[in-house]
Amino acid sequence: MIADRQRGSSELKEIAILFLKLGTTAFGGPAAHIAMMQDEVVRRRQWLTQEEFLDMLSATNFIPGPNSTEMAIHIGYKKGGMRGLVLAGVLFILPAALIVSFIAEVYLRFGKLPSVSNAFYGIKPVIVAVVFQALFVLGKAALKNRTLYAVFVLAIAASVFGLNELLVLVFSGLLTLLIRRPMKSGPLLLGVASIFALTPRKALAFVTLGIGASKFSLFSLFAFFMKVGSVLFGSGYVLLAFLRTDLVEKYKWLTDAQLLDATAVGQFTPGPVFTTATFIGYLLAGPMGATVATVGIFLPAFVFVAISAPYIYKLRSSSWIGAILDGVNVASLALMAVVTWNLGRSAIVDPITTVIAIISTLLLIKFRMNSAWLVLSGAIAGILLKCAQWF
Question: 184-199, pLDDT tens digit by residue?
Answer without folding.
Answer: 545 555 555 554 554 4
